[in-house]
Amino acid sequence: MKLLSDPLATAALGAELAALLRPGDVVALSGDLGAGKTTLARGLLAELGLAGEAQSPSFSIVIAYAPPEVRLPLWHVDLYRIEDPEEAEELGLDDARVDSALLIEWPERLEHGLWPDALRLHIEAGPDGARRLTWNVPPSWEGRWPPR
């Protein structure tokens, strides 16, 4: 468990995560509305070299970033509007993993379709404005997460 005191700390954790990402990685980011998922994603994308503020993929569902815009290809996915896990199959996420990392908000919409090698992060808002981050680390992330 890690306590994130404010949005700057949440974005900074996203930047730390960016340094650990490899093509094929999946990061599943869950939490209630307003918990800080997009803030973490923006910190990660800024660290990958994105100029300007990253847009939320809430309406487009997927925003794909590729060099030279960022140093590592990344698909930022928001599954909030997905009602049936089968809808996600049409997004081509499996194919994207060949050369890109995936950052998925609302992964619970996939139900049992989330890859077993995904790093699962959960952000929970506290009453004082701080965020509580917990995680589930698969073998492919051991030694990389949590950041030192």
UniProtKB/TrEMBL annotation:
GO terms for molecular function: ATP binding; metal ion binding; transferase activity. GO terms for biological process: tRNA threonylcarbamoyladenosine modification. Keywords: ATP-binding, Cytoplasm, Magnesium, Metal-binding, Nucleotide-binding, Transferase, tRNA processing. The keyword ATP-binding applies. GO terms for cellular component: cytoplasm. It is found in: Cytoplasm. Belongs to the TsaE family. This is tRNA threonylcarbamoyladenosine biosynthesis protein TsaE. It comes from Sphingomonas oleivorans.
